[in-house]
Amino acid sequence: MKEQISLKDAISIGIGGMVGGGIFAVLGLAVSLAKGGTPLAFLFAGIIALLTAYSYAKLSKKFPENGGTVKFVHQQYGSGVFAGGINNLLWISYIVMLALYASAFGSYGAELFSITGTKEIDIRIFQSSIILIALSINYLSVKLVGEIESIAVVVKLLILIAFIVVGFYGFSIHPENIEQLSPQHWESPILLLSGGMVIFVAYEGFELIANSIADLKDKEKNTEKAYFGAVGFVVVLYILISIVTVGALPFDEIASAKDYVLAKAAEPTLGQLGFTIITITALISTFSAINATVLGSGRVNYVIAKDNELPKYFSHIFWGKPIGFLVTAILSIALVNLFNLQSISTAGSAGFLLVFAIVNYIGYKKHKVLESNKWIHLLATILCSLAFLTLVIQQYSENRIGVITALGIIVFSFILEFIYKATLSKK
């Protein structure tokens, strides 16, 4: 009999997927966009994540299959070009996330260790090698990946909670820092919303719960609890972390340390020791996120290929694992070395917002079967769609390369599927 997982395990999977590399990678970016309104930006993104979690919970309970999002899309759209394009976009969005986490690992690693004496070269070495190390671990033992995740989740949560407690204590020492959080330091509502959408990638990890629902004990009672428990906890955690960060450092210091701002925010209260502890936490967190994402994206790629939406080549086994693991890692290394953090984050957020809009719409269309509230599904669909448009329009003026990359990935996902399906029909 297949081993089942508890509600606590399912919530841990969701929290581990969200509190991975995302918060370490995009916090500085969020502050640069939203300034003192950064906690609001995280709240906006969190509300969309919570509404989307409702759709995922209802769909997971009705269709508890290990394919998760891929299987939800098939339930509504079959296996045509549209379904294949969406599933390809999901896989490529995972690749983008892998690049985002690796970028964060490289930035934090270069702050702690110097290899060549040139920071930019060190960052590239760290961000490329960590993907290769994670790939090797995935080929070596999937069980080891799970063990690393279990330990990493506990370590990073304990340290981040301690960071919040120490940060609030720091406000009593430096009360003048709280002034940066006042509304006069907030950016315009459109920038607050845009900031929330650029950092939406920090929430996307709850999607991993869908892949474990088939093994969850007492699905009827625990599915919604797993999703809302994980997402709700992380929304509160992110808002508190952003409050501490904005209240710890002047905006110009946050801007100059954008790629490793969480470690920098620990310095005013704990000095170099705080910087080092948070940096090590970032390395542990991003490494565990990279590990889990190589596994998750490799499996998604394999499922899509088995469902005949990618060439059968991707379902081939290489050294005991799907070759998609290797392809995913190679593409992520290329991406992280070709684009900057903001471009990668924009592309990742855009991809997941579009995928989540589709999943919410599937929930809306199937609300009778799901016995769910169609208006919540519809609201989530509209908000994900508006968030996607807001992100693209606002970022186009500031980060044109990121927007072009994001739209290029979306178009490529559907063109790839169209060409593949056209090739199949000729055989």
Account of the 3D structure:
By secondary structure, this protein is mainly alpha-helical. The chain has one domain (7-426): Amino acid/polyamine transporter I. Helices cover 78% and strands 1% of the residues. The protein is built from 17 helices and two strands. It has helices spanning 7-18, 22-34, 38-62, 69-77, 81-112, 119-140, 142-173, 189-198, 219-248, 251-256, 261-265, 267-306, 324-338, 341-365, 367-370, 374-398, 400-426; strands spanning 317-318, 321-322. The protein has a two-stranded antiparallel sheet with strand order 1-2. β1 (317-318) and β2 form a beta hairpin. α12 packs across α13 (324-338). The mean pLDDT is 81. It is a multi-pass membrane protein. It is found in: Cell membrane. It comes from Patiriisocius marinus. The chain crosses the membrane at residues 12-34, 40-57, 77-103, 123-141, 153-171, 191-214, 226-251, 271-296, 317-338, 344-363, 375-395, 401-420.
Number of discrete domains: 1
CATH architecture: Up-down Bundle
Helical residues, percent: over 70%
Rg, please?
20 Å
Bulk shape: globular
The CATH superfamily name is Amino acid/polyamine transporter I
CATH fold name: Amino acid/polyamine transporter I
The overall pLDDT average reads 81
Main location: membrane
Membrane topology: Multi-pass membrane protein
GO molecular function, one term: transmembrane transporter activity
Subcellular location: Cell membrane
